[in-house]
Amino acid sequence: MSTLSDLTGSYTIDPTHTRIGFVARHAMITKVRGNFNEFEGTATVGSDLADSKVDLTIQATSIDTRNEQRDGHLRSNDFLAMDEFPTITFTSTSVKATGDSSLEITGDLTIKGTTKPVTVPFEFEGGATDPFGYERVGFEGSVVINRSDFGVTWNAALETGGVLVSEKITLEFEVSAVKNA
């Protein structure tokens, strides 16, 4: 599997070899990175890439920034309101090739009960058969969203000007998927 046209079939995201992360600016001067550690996803790739479909469900409570106090705040009503909205979902509406090894997946991203269209550019990193005989494919992509578009609006003003948490959040996807038998 060396090109996008070789990928026809259905796939399941391998959560032990996939990273779904984010980056936010903190205090306007540094970046805070985090991950979601629990998620599941599937992809069906048609012989015509336009017939492809991707679905992803992230358990919002699995947010991990390596700081327990910050993670607790992110889980609260100030940010993701996880008691009311336990999942973040993405359902594709279109998939199209943008090059020999690149594609764009457009779909509906739902965070905190608000759904907005998002287009994520991905690079196909290749495919291989692993030592257990499974066919694997890898993709990497990222997209910048405005968190307030999804109702995630909490912030704090800084004495020096600016705010504590950036409006723009980069979502990062490093995906390993296994072809279903």
TrEMBL record:
SMART domains: YceI
Residues in Lipid/polyisoprenoid-binding YceI-like domain copies: 10-178
Domain of life: Bacteria
InterPro entries listed in its UniProt record: Lipid/polyisoprenoid-bd_YceI (IPR007372), TTHA0802/YceI-like_sf (IPR036761)
Family recorded in the similarity comment: Belongs to the UPF0312 family.
Protein name (record): YceI family protein
